[in-house]
Amino acid sequence: MENLNELLKMIVPREWLFSVMPLPSSTHANDLDLLYWFLIITCGILFLLVVVPLFLIVVRYRRKTVHQRAESQKDHNFWMESLWTFLPFVYLAILFMWGFLQYLGMYVAPHDALELRVIGQKWQWSVDYPKEEISVAGVGATIAIPINRPVRLVMSSQDVIHSFFIPNMRVKQDVVPGRYTTLWFEPNQLGEFPVLCAEYCGDLHSNMLAKVQVMTDDAYKNWVEEQKSQNQNVPLPELGEKLYTKLGCVACHSTDGSIKLAPSFKGIYGKMEELTSGASMKIDDNYIRNKLLTPTKHTAKGYPQIMPSFQGRVSERDISGIVEFIKSLSGKQAIEGG
Amino acid sequence: MSAISAHAGTNYLNEKKGIWSWASTLDHKRIGVMYLFSIFFFFLIGGIFALLLRTQLLSPAGSLIDAKTYNQLFTLHGAVMVFLVIVPGIAASLGNFVLPLQLGAKDVAFPRLNLMSYYIYVTGSIFAVCSIIFGAIDTGWTFYAPYSISAQGKVTLMLTAIFILGFSSIFTGLNFITTVHKLRAPGMTWFRMPLFVWGIYATSILQVMATPVLAITLALIVVERTLSVGIFNPALGGDAVLFQHFFWFYSHPAVYIMILPGMAVISELVTTFSQKKIFGYKMIAYSSIAIALISFLVWGHHMFTSGQSPLVNMLFSALTFLVAIPSGIKIFNWLATLFKGSISLATPMLYCLSFLFLFTIGGLTGVFLGTLSVDIHLHDTYFVVAHFHYVMVGGTFMAFIGGVYYWWPKMFGKMYSEKLGILGALLVFLGFNMTFFVQFYMGSQGMPRRYYNYLEQFQTLHQVSTFGSYLLGVGFLVVLINWIHALVKGAPAPANPFHATTLEWTHTQSPPITHNFEVQPVVHHEPYEYGDEPHSIHGFQGLKA
Amino acid sequence: MANINGSALFPLADHYATPEQQVDSGKLGMWLFLTTEILLFGGLFVSYACFNYLHMDVFKEAHKYLDWRLGAVNTVVLLFSSLTVVLAIHAAQKQKKYLIVINIALTIACGIAFMAVKYVEYSHKFHAGLLPGSYFTNATIANPDQAHIYFGIYFLMTGLHGFHVLIGIGIFVWLLLRTIKNDFSSQYYAPLELGGLYWHLVDVIWIFLFPLLYLIS
To answer: Which domains are seen in chain A, by residue range?
Structure first.
């Protein structure tokens, strides 16, 4: 038995072993898994109640001779029919009540929850910590939270409908443009847990990953401090590079010359870009600024017109940082004019 | 002694020959056969899309095809299978062929409208094919706003195709309802109709009442794309979730349009292949109508995580559980029919048994999804994908194949190979379970839908599923080969090879003459009488003693 | 296409046993079709209700730009045309061909009049820039950046209805031609009844549209 366990552990990580659900890591999860197992067992029994008699009937009453008739033509049985109408009704009523009450518990967040603001966009998550004045963003971003403390997410989308899904916490909520939706949970396991987008949103829907990292209180405080210091007084080109990932430019613009969905940033500063109108325009500081704030004003020919506006999301310093970053990919110094 | 003996004389297939005689036919049997061929053709196309996307999923970060192509494949697999195969499905093909025969009628109420329905279907399918060729869409078959408003590809063209196909569905439903009301044989009261007719009737109610809402919903997306009106687009003051309400108001009844005909076929198979009167006839009939009506009230269970209020979620959860009860009643009634029957394991019956097994799993997993808190975890994961494939393929499609095998001798006057039939049924059953059962587990573990790449830990299960899909594909190929072989070289079929009791078997030859009946049948009793009392004009008494 | 149970006066199709069966089937079929139309427009009425609730002040303001008098004229015109349809059927029952022709012609005339008034209303909106979505250019209305929603719904609902009126006109032109060719008699006038049913629905939908769009404040 020991050897079998060791063998299995080598093939399958603990979380997936013999458990139908991923490692329960929130207070919701423990309750939900109980209901889930109830469903598995009772539906399993119901399944057997259909399939076993089916098998037995087919074997026992199999037609052996070509002209064999049925043994009976009885087509009513009041008690059986009542039973199989009434009992499922009771069973389903129980499930409904249990599921609904559990859902209500998942819907109403406690007062003292740590509040985070989430923005979904094609194709990454950004999370702001309003009280701590830090934020994380990008594919694979780490969203740290302290253990045993409820956290509430207030979410909306920049563009299309996304859905914030943390399987280990058993929470999911659509992230919709034009309004806020919320979810809450209380993590009770330390560790890293995947965050997935669960509403199809386009090309890189399956790439829209992040992770929730549940830490001890102290570790969390340290992490917050680290995030704060990272954002201060960063040199402009470095700031630009950070924003390149954080704001999601990386999804469409490469830095190595390859074409994704938009022109590559490599070597682009100072070049002439052909616009859809037929005119040509120099890619300089003003061009970049305009593209960030009003992207539909001048559009590059031959590319899909899908760039969103960053109006309100980038400060003046941010714009300067992005300009310097793009310049750095063309080998120009910050001092040289554009 | 069977009522009509087989004879290789004039029948609806050979009375008039040539393409024009088929293209201008008003005969419901020919129209049904044309639908059958078209529907299976599109099933092949939709199936190939599925095999391609499953192949991509063999590795977690695979790049057999790029992400956009993958997204197009799952979109088109869904759109083709839903709108070109399963919604017309059993009703347009078997329903057209069998319904008037079972009612003792010469044709449907509006034969010209029937032919027009078929041509509308063909037109819609041409638009759909053009959309696929000239700009495959990647919105998902559900076209959620706002993504579908600005998505690339020939979205408007595909929406127009579906709009057109909707009319085919509406006119077919309208035709069947009128036929059932007005063209029943003398003596055939409502409760003397075969249960297949009840199932098709309930389906037709849904087709007539639900499809117009789809038409308006799709038209609104087209208007949004072309005129930027701002109904669903939040950037223009619209509401994105409103689209979901409109869309699912049709699409939930649509899934019952898909399953009710399947259940209708199963009622016929269960009684014929056990030579026993159907248990609880009236309950099955009433259940069909109940399912049709309640199905209009549960659309919100597709939207539990959309941000709608807990009160709304509660109502939809409760109603969803309610609609499960009539389906459960049917399963138990069918089981009770088989009890103490004389059970034959001919190919149609193998598919009937498959249905009972697979639909039970599909239905029970629907119970998981109706449970609010559990659905929050399972929504938009592979659990849902597995659930709907179990009910639509394991349910409806098994019934479809079973029905085609069952009525095959009547439709074409030929028998098929039982050996190939058994082989195909086995491969399909095994392949199907291998493909989709693991997906329940994957969904519980958090594997989301519509994912081009996925987390590494899911690889083994994805590979099992993909190999299962190949096996399933082989199974369907065996079925196809069996049918083609039967058409070309099948043995001549008797009028009533399975000793059934409904009018299409007892009062017509195989294949039937163009006018269906030599003499207008008159009905004196309920269907499915296998006992000793003399029945029908020709004294048919089920199996000979 | 008469079968042996029919007569020269009633073209009985092959698969029907009696004229009554055929006429009843036709009526049931038409009623079912009308149900689908009600559901089609129902979707739009629901959209209207949703947006009215979400943007009540915008809707209140925007609807003032609709001229209720023109709407009232159209209502009277359609109601009158429903009357002429009934009279045409009555005339058919009495086998008075000239009366059928007159009444159908009046119905067609009413349909055309309705479309003419619609044309006047639409061109006013075009001139004033009161158009749906991105085509909205009116500057004087109270909430210009939201009013386009109202006009989007307005044009959709009245446009779809107008499209159905046009189809109705086409149907009655066909019925007029058939009447002139002596296709109908006191034994057989089912197509007139079916066309009439369709026209009544078009009228009923307008009866709901008119107060909703023009009158409610």
So the answer is: 2-59+79-107 (no CATH), 114-231 (2.60.40.420), 234-337 (1.10.760.10)
> CA-CA-CA-CA torsion for A189, A190, A194, A197, nearest 10 degrees?
60
CB B141 within 8 A of CB B78: yes
Q: What is the DSSP string of A76-124?
A: --HHHHHHHHHHHHHHHHHHHHHHHHHHHHHHS--TTPEEEEEEEETTE
Token pair for B155: 């979205």
* Distance of alpha carbon B433 from alpha carbon B386, whole angstroms: 10
Residue A304 has pLDDT above 90, yes or no: no
Q: Residue A178 CB: number of other CB atoms within 10 A?
A: 16
Beta bridge partners of A214: A145, A191
Best CATH choice for the domain B20-544 from the list 3.40.640.10, 2.60.40.10, 1.20.210.10, 3.40.1190.20:
1.20.210.10
Residue B28 CB contacts under 8 Å (≥ 6 apart), including other chains: B96, B97, B99, B100, B107, B108, B111, B114
Q: In chain B, what residues touch C148 (CB-CB under 8 Å)?
A: 229-230, 236-237
A123: cis peptide before it, omega within 30°? yes
Q: Which ranges of B10-59 does DSSP label H, i.e. alpha helix?
A: 19-23, 28-56
Strand A124-129 versus strand A114-121 pairing type: antiparallel
Contacts of C79 (CB under 8 A, 6+ apart): C203
Across chain B, mean pLDDT equals 93
pTM of model > 0.95: no
When scoring C3, C28, C39, C155 by the number of chain B Cβ atoms within 10 A, the one with the most, hence best to mutate, is C39
Q: Residue C109 and residue C193: Cα distance in Å, rounded?
A: 19
Would an 8 Å CB–CB cutoff place A296 in contact with chain B? no
How do residues B494-545 score in pLDDT, each as one tens digit? 999 999 999 999 999 999 999 999 999 999 999 999 875 433 334 344 443 3
Q: Which residues of chain C have pLDDT under 70?
A: 1-8, 217
Kindly list the domain boundaries of chain C, sorted by start residue.
Answer: 40-214
b/e burial code for range A310-338 (CB count within 10 A of at least 16 → b): beebbeeebbbbbbbbbbbbeeeeeeeee
Superfamily of structural domain C40-214: Cytochrome c oxidase, subunit III, four-helix bundle (1.20.120.80)
Cα separation, B519 vs B502, whole angstroms: 16
If one counts every other C-beta atom within 10 angstroms of the C-beta of residue A17, the result is 11
Residue type for position A315: S
Do the Cβ atoms of C132 and B227 come within 8 Å? yes
Q: Which helix (H) or strand (E) holds A164?
A: strand A162-166
Burial of residue B68 (CB within 10 Å: 0-12, 13-18, 19+) is: middle
Q: If residue A120 lies in a helix (H) or strand (E), which one and from where to where?
A: strand A114-121
Judge C/A contact: 3 or more CB pairs < 8 A: no
This model of the complex carries an ipTM of 0.91
Q: What is the mean pLDDT of residues B232-249?
A: 90
Tens-place pLDDT, residues C139-181: 777 777 778 888 888 998 999 999 999 999 999 999 999 999 9
Mean pLDDT of B385-406: 98
Asked if the Cβ–Cβ distance from C149 to B175 is below 8 Å, we say: no
DSSP state of C120: H
Rounded to a whole number of angstroms, the distance from the CA of B107 to the nearest CA of chain C is 6
B interface test, pick of A200, A203, A207, A306 with most B CB neighbours within 10 Å: A200
Q: Which of B107, B182, B213 sits opposite C28 (nearest CB)?
A: B182
Least Cα distance to B376 among A32, A37, A209, A34 occurs for A32
